[in-house]
């Protein structure tokens, strides 16, 4: 029953919110800071979480500073990671794969208020998207990114891609490592059923990027990975056996 309710709510909200955003922006209404249009993504995500019976517990909420743009870097095991983070972070854009842009109406609406799309198969296009994200950060918008690139099947931390850290350095914005735990129990990768549960989001100590250059990207990535891996083990008993550097062929 919970799964049916969640999918019905998702369908209704996706259609109504996306259509509202598309119509409003087509008519010339602007997406203004903390305005009605910009708030739609957070509204949508909170209702999806409620329909799924998913509660959120935030550890160290003071590390979300309204008016101070940051790069939030999170692990990724479920679509509910996205909904949970979007429920608590003000004025954000997610870095999302370009394939999602093809979804009728929804893809366009999300590009207006919630996401910056990257083409993971085109290295230059991907880094151009990160440059666009850096420009938005400088206007006061935070960026949320999952540097593992795609959803995992366990909470063990996987290698990171470098693009998000190039973005953080370009924007000279602090990186806030985030551990999202509990979403896999709500809906793991590949599952249809949705179960109610508690999502615990732990915001770690921000990592400053002021004064860093492009050459510092690997060091920054390693620092963030180490911080997240240590917190996963300390708080949840999850031991990550991999490494920060992603040695697989990648476009970003």
| CATH class categorisation | Alpha Beta
Which spans have pLDDT < 50 for at least 5 consecutive residues? Answer: none
Alpha-beta classification: alpha/beta
Average pLDDT: 92
In CATH terms, what is the architecture? 3-Layer(aba) Sandwich
Shape: globular
Our estimate of the beta-strand percent is: 15-25%
Query: How is the main sheet built?
Result: 7 strands, mixed
The amount of helix comes to 40-55%
**Oligomer classification:** single chain
Can you give a write-up of this model?
The model has no long low-confidence stretch (mean pLDDT about 90). With about 250 residues, the chain is of the alpha/beta class. The protein has one domain: Glycerol-3-phosphate (1)-acyltransferase (3-Layer(aba) Sandwich). It has helices at about 1-25, 40-50, 80-90, 105-115, 125-135, 165-170, 185, 215-235, and strands spanning about 55-60, 70-75, 90-95, 115-120, 140-145, 175-180, 195-205.
Summarize the SSE layout with pairings.
Layout: H1 2-26, H2 40-52, E1 54-59, E2 71-74, H3 79-88, E3 92-97, H4 106-113, E4 115-118, H5 123-137, E5 142-145, H6 163-171, E6 175-181, H7 183-186, E7 197-203, H8 217-236
Parallel strand pairs: 1-7, 2-5, 2-6, 3-4, 3-5
Antiparallel strand pairs: 6-7
What's the gist of this structure?
This protein is α/β, with parallel strands linked by helices.
């Amino acid at each position: 029953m919970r799964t049916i309710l969640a999918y019905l709510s998702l369908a209704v909200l996706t259609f109504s919110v996306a259509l509202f955003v598309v119509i409003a922006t087509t008519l010339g209404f602007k997406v203004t800071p903390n305005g009605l249009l910009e708030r739609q993504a957070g509204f949508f995500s909170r209702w999806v979480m409620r329909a799924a019976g998913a509660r959120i517990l935030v550890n160290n909420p003071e590390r979300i500073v309204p008016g101070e743009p940051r790069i939030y870097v999170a692990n990724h095991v479920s679509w509910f990671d996205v909904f949970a983070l979007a429920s608590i972070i003000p004025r954000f854009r997610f870095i999302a794969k370009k394939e999602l842009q093809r979804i009728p109406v929804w893809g366009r609406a999300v590009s207006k208020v919630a996401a910056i799309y990257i083409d993971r198969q085109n290295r230059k296009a991907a880094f151009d998207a990160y440059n666009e994200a850096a420009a938005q950060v400088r206007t006061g918008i935070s960026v949320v990114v999952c540097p593992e690139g795609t959803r995992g099947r366990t909470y063990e931390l996987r290698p990171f891609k470098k693009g998000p850290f190039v973005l953080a350095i370009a924007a000279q914005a602090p990186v806030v490592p985030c551990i999202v735990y509990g979403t896999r129990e709500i809906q793991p990768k590949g599952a249809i059923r949705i179960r109610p549960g508690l999502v615990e989001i732990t915001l770690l100590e921000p990592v400053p990027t002021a004064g860093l250059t492009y050459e510092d990207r690997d060091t920054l990535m390693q620092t963030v990975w180490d911080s997240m891996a240590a917190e996963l083990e300390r708080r949840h008993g999850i031991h990550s056996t991999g490494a920060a550097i992603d040695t697989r062929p990648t476009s970003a």
